[in-house]
Amino acid sequence: MAKNKPKSKTHSGAKKRFRLTGSGKIMRRRANKNHLLEHKSSKRTRRLSRDVEMANADARNMKKLL
């Protein structure tokens, strides 16, 4: 029998925070949307609500965790 490498487990914290798109990009939430929202403008909070693509340098490491 061939010796297989063990499967790597998904990082529990990463799976809660990031998602993989169909094309393989990693999407993340923007910072500054958790608290102290009263003084931030509606325009700003709407912009912060959208997910953005993760930077390539970070995405390479993140793909190993997902």
From TrEMBL:
Cellular-component GO terms for this entry: cytosolic large ribosomal subunit
The record's keywords, sorted A to Z, are: Ribonucleoprotein, Ribosomal protein
Q: Name one GO biological process term.
A: translation
Compositionally biased, Basic residues: which spans? 1-19
Which parts of the sequence are annotated with region: Disordered?
A: 1-66
- A Pfam family that the UniProt record links to this protein: Ribosomal_L35p
User: Which one of the record's GO molecular function terms can you name?
Assistant: structural constituent of ribosome
HAMAP family per record: Ribosomal_bL35
- Protein family per UniProt: Belongs to the bacterial ribosomal protein bL35 family.
Task: Provide the protein name.
Answer: Large ribosomal subunit protein bL35
The organism is Haloactinospora alba
